[in-house]
CARDB domain-containing protein (Halosimplex pelagicum), 654 residues
Amino acid sequence: MPFDQLFATGQSREQVISTTLLTLLVSSLLLAGAVGTATATTYSSSDSPTPEYGDDTPLVDESEAVDNSSVVVNGDGNVVSGKQVGYGEPVGKLIRVYWLNGLEKTESVIVRDDNVVTRTGQNVIVEGGGSVGVFDETPDIRARYDNGTVEKVVVNGSNIETESGRNVKTEEGENVEINRNTFNDHEFVIDILNTSNVGEGEVMEVTVKVGNIGHESGEEIIDIEVDGRGQSPRIVELDPGETQKLDLQYFTRSKDAPGVELTAKTPDDSDTVTAPIDKPDFRIDIQSADRAVSFGEEISVSAVLNRIGGSHEKTYAIDFLADGSVTDTELVSLERGGKTEVNFTYKTNGGDVPSVLATVSGPGEAEDAQKIAVRLPILAVDKVYPPKNVSEYEKVDVTAKVENYGTDTKNQTVQLAVSKNGTNETTIVDKKRVKLGNRSEKNVTFAYHTKPEYHPQHKLTVSTPDHNRSVTVKTNATAVHKFETVPKETIIAPSDEKRTLKPTIKNIGHANGTAKATFKLNGSVEKTINLSVEAGKTASTKLDVEVPQNASVKYKIAVQHDETNGTIAPQPSATATPSDTATATAESGTDTDTNATATPGGETDTDTNASTTAPTGNSGSGGGGLLGFLPSVPVLLGTGFTVVLVGLIAHAAS
């Protein structure tokens, strides 16, 4: 302020001068204090000379100071004492200064069990050049005071001290120890924290904790193993002191219950636990599968998995096995009480002929299996349907299913053959021509007649040129009646005489039965008779027939399984001369018994004596033959002998 303005205030000259001098004195004193303070706080680098700390710097409570030449730190790394500052209040920090990716960074340092460690738990180690270092940055431990000064912390013998020569001590007055562990790069440790509660076939979640206790950043493969096999490898990268939780997986298998030894591993460490595995209840049902295929074709199998027990939704492994070897696996998710369908395919090969066992297997012991035919590419007899209730001596139909397993059309003969009971004698009884496209099928029906020799069973074989299939058929015993002897087909006799029709019936079946014999003359039933005949035995019956005049009679005799027929004709009338004809009449008799019962010894009916008139021989001059010679017989041999001879000839002719 200009003096003229000062005097303009109304004060006297003496008052103005006094005020001005007082102002100058106060300003000088304030300026001197500011200069002294600036001089005390300019130490900020270890390269500067050690500052002179005057004895006039007061302590808050000098009796509680450890000593005037120590830097005292508490457990949190706070500097709480020193010659320069008062005791009891934090006045600074121990820090670590390091460089990362070209940037300077700091980290708090604490005192733990009289050791200097970083906040991440790394002990301070002795690094080259007598400095204290952590990792590979040195020197990096410093004492930073609240007044802005920073000192390096170095090693002096067995002591850690600041560059100004003050020991670094704990509040208890103990020197901080030096950890002289060897420096290392990175080291990964691992611990298993938890394994999820699962059942067989489910996916187990494994939680692990991985930490890098080394001094450099790095990456490693983390995995879990069961029975020495890796299950869930992961690559993890960690900075020094960094930890990380990982969720790994193990796909449990059947028969893992009640638990497995599970190991979590790093290249440097491992941890092993016994992981419990439940055994839930499951059911597998094969719903559909190919019945038969040609080798080289694919088999398709569909199955349903039912989960009966358990809690929340879980994932299971379902395996498909061909003849016991796993060829495919499907992962399915199921809630409690749920079910799902799984589908598999399998390509067959020549080694699968004639069949392959297809198995679908799930958690626990749940499985279902089905045998599938694997055929050569031929026209094959897939199945023969055996006839039911077959008896001796009847017509029977047989059906067979024929299938073309090849890839082209087949046009072949399919035949039915019968093998008698207990023999290798085979007879082809029917044939059919079959034409089928590839992978198509057809039912073919054959017919045959059973015989008594097919009792008690016989074998039917249906065959193609490349394949055959046989079945055995039971043959029921029954009575089978056949004629063993029958009358002559043509009977010629004199008119008004009688001739006897006398057949013999045999039961060629394997059961006793009744033969129903029927006689018909010119289509009209003349007689019906029932004859009891044991198996393998015979019986006979008869019918007397009067020879008509000037006409013939057609006869027919029938039983259940046989018949015979013939003709009875009158002998033609002839005009005889003494020189070329002769008539001889034999005594005749008749038998009127028409009902008979067979006995094991033979027949019950008696033979009928017939009246026979000898047929005439050729007439005319020079008649030849035996009959032509008969007119001269009476002259040569006499009448009695001639009658006998003519009777024998007539009987033979009838």
The chain has five helices and 46 strands. The mean pLDDT is 75. Residues 13-40 form the longest helix (28 residues).
